[in-house]
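Homework help board

Subject: predicted structure for assignment chain

Our instructor gave us this sequence and asked us to write out the predicted structure in token form, then describe one feature. I got the tokens but I'm not sure how to describe them. Can anyone check?
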Amino acid sequence: MKAIWKNTVIAESDDTVVLEGNHYFPESSLKREFVTFSNHKTTCAWKGQASYLSLLVDGELKADAIWYYADPRPQAEEIRGRVAFGNGIQVKP
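My token output:
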């Protein structure tokens, strides 16, 4: 699977976990040169607190494009150490 924004591969892995229709990639598969800070956080009733990262490609910022659960609740343990991508990021084989 590949995560793509602005014709740029942001992450690539053959080891994704699909949860609620989202592919969660290993965090190590992220191409860090395109990732930048975000202080945005949300809470999911059953997964826990999500933290976000933003993307910066060709000088264009896509805020809060990536999310992850640093300390997921036990029922979501399978996504620990993984990241997922928001709207506008293509995820395809």
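Reply (TA_rk): Your tokens look well-formed. For the description, you could write something like this. The longest strand covers residues 35-44. That's the kind of observation they're looking for.
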